[in-house]
Amino acid sequence: MTRKKEFRMRQINRLLQEEIADLLLTELQDERLHRLTITEVRTSPDLYHAIVFAATRGAKNREACIEAVRRSAGRIRKLLYSRLHLKRIPELDFRYDESLDRAERIFRTLESLHAEEKDEES
After folding, report:
1. CATH number assigned to the domain covering 3-97
2. What's the rounded Cα separation, in Å, for the pair 63 and 60?
3. pTM of whole model > 0.85?
4. Which end of the chain has the lower number of beta carbons within 10 A, N or C?
């Protein structure tokens, strides 16, 4: 893929990420969707498919939130069509992004190591 196409794909991915996040907060009434954070969008080069990665605070409602956004994918796509001036709006495949959970576990581990190190120095 040429640099120009790569740049364009990054622009489209960022635009979709921002618009989907805005739609979840402003247009959809389901409170579970308000807890989601859209972390990344990866669109296929032909714009037929997009994987939308979402994360939420707290593991309790994670599955319910992802299931709710998956059920709303058609409505979100329809709203995107009315907002964006793209040749086509991709089919949206929502997936849970575990990277924030992993980062939090790493942070907690580092904090505990740091606390142990302080205890040993004392």
Report:
1. 3.30.300.20
2. 8
3. no
4. C
